[in-house]
Amino acid sequence: MTMTTPKYKETFRLPFAEQIEFFKNKLNLPTDSYLDLEGKEHDYAFVVAGANRNDILADFRQAIDKAIIDGTTLDEFRKDFDDIVAKFGWDYNGGRRWRSRIIYDTNLYSSYNAGRYEQHQSMKDYRPYLQYVHRDGQKNPRPLHQSWDDLVLPADDPFWTSHYPINAYGCHCSVIAHSERSLKREGLSVGTSPKIEYVTKVLGKRSGNPKLVTLPEGIDYGFDRIPGTNRVDMPSKLLLDKAIAVPPDLAANMVGNVLQVAEVRALLNAEVKAMVDTVADEQLARGVSKSIGALPNDVVSALIEQDLTPTSAIITLRDTDVLKLIKDSRALPKSFLQNIADYLISPEAVLLDTTQDNPALLYVVDMGKGKGKAVISVIDNVISSAKPYNAAAIKAAQVLYGEVTS
Questions:
Q1: What is the rounded CA–CA span in Å between residue 342 and residue 143?
Q2: Phi and psi for 214 in degrees, rounded to 5?
Q3: CA 100/CA 51 separation, integer angstroms
Q4: Containing H/E element for 32?
Q5: DSSP tag of 196
Q6: Which residues contact 306 (CB under 8 A, 6 or more apart)?
Q7: Rounded to whole angstroms, how far apart are CA atoms 366 and 110?
Q8: What is the DSSP letter of 311?
Q9: Which of 42, 140, 191, 231 has the most other CB atoms within 10 Å of its CB?
Q10: Span between the terminal Cα atoms of the chain, in Å
Q11: Helix, strand, or coil (residue 350)
Q12: At what angle do helices 17-24 and 96-122 cross, to 10 degrees?
């Protein structure tokens, strides 16, 4: 790397489509501490550490949405921050100026760089190099981040896996994509990937739930990743399990949106298939359960209106039930269970059966051309049975969603 100072620095411009899309697809998750989520989980979750109520989190989400889409300044965001704190009497840690800046900076800069990385990947064939840029004028610059300033490496260098900005709370570092021509024009040359030193430390000592972590030196917890790149790789445990704590009306809408992403749905289907195949091969249940979907928003609303508010919108499949269904010769084929998550996403109708001790939700699903229909019974958010469609069996049930066709 040369010592020549580049003629320009990339500035923080808002908004652009990739950034907006990245933030829009996040799920609001209440948390008590910044340690509640792993770093990669932030690609799916919008959190404000200590905001453990959904109403507070929803207002912060609206304020950040406005900042990203409209380009709200930090001073303008602080007015929203003050209004939210006053409205809910939120008792937060740290001073007002520090805390409001952390919320504002972390969300705007992480979403910005997630969008930029997507752009950089799309132009990698003709701009195959990335330049690390440390923002000038930082009040308390981090020496290691300064040392990486103007470092140029190939876009696929392993260094970027853990060091693509942002890399810490308050970090304003960014990346510029280059071609051979632009490197020459700016007096830059491709450098050598720095040796990464790792540091092990205990975080959250005063929280009552400390965590031992190992991180690259100079990188804060949760920032040792490329923002936005973990969405397709995340398991259903993150997508659905953590949404169990979210009020059902919110979770139904949010999880429903996430499961519309084809890559996410494909991953969920693969996980369900692996679970079903394991049970079928071993003829044994080991007490494993998997979140496989969410109640439709219309169903949740209808249940709330009837004072039957579910404890959660998330639907669970247990391997004990999979084993029971596989052994039942009257039940549906194994292939049905392997694809049950897809059937739950787009049912023909959902009905409420109150003729039993525990009310059941009956999903009427079309298995495809020439295969007929099936009814999936969900009791207390757990798949309890799956049987071929029988009109008489659902005659007394109330339709909450859709329409049962002949």
A1: 50
A2: -120, 120
A3: 13
A4: none
A5: P
A6: 352
A7: 42
A8: S
A9: 42
A10: 71
A11: strand
A12: 120
Cα 84 to the center of its chain, rounded Å:
24
Residue with tokens 């071993």: 282
Neighbours of 187 (CB within 10 A): 13
**DSSP annotation string for 256-281:** HHHTTSHHHHHHHHHHHHHHHHHHHH
Interhelix angle for 262-282 vs 319-327, to 10°? 60
251: three-class secondary structure by DSSP:
helix
H helix runs in 186-296, sequence order? 236-239, 248-258, 262-282
How far is the C-alpha of 174 from the C-alpha of 180, rounded, in Å? Answer: 20
Looking at every residue in the chain, the average pLDDT score rounds to: 87
> Do 117 and 160 meet the contact criterion of CB atoms below 8 Å apart?
no
Mean pLDDT of 305-317: 92
Q: How far is CA 171 from the centre of its chain?
A: 22
Contacting residues for 223 by C-beta, under 8 A, at least 6 apart: 39, 166, 167, 168, 169, 171
Cβ burial of 394 (10 Å; 0-12, 13-18, 19+) is middle
Q: How many CB atoms lie within 10 A of CB 44?
A: 21
Q: How far is CA 91 from CA 30, 60, 78, 383, in A?
A: 15, 14, 16, 40
Closest CA to 306 of 375, 399, 404, 377: 399
Q: Quick one: pLDDT band at residue 103, thresholds 50, 70, 90?
A: very high
The dihedral through the CA atoms of 387, 390, 392, 395 has a sign that is: positive
Hey, what amino acid is at 396? A
Residue 176 burial (CB < 10 Å; 0-12/13-18/19+)?
buried
pLDDT in tens, 149-166: 999 999 999 999 999 999
Q: pLDDT band at residue 5, thresholds of 50, 70 and 90?
A: very low
**The two structure tokens encoding residue 297:** 């928003």
| Cβ neighbours around 16 below 10 Å, total | 14
- The 8-class DSSP code of residue 293 comes to E
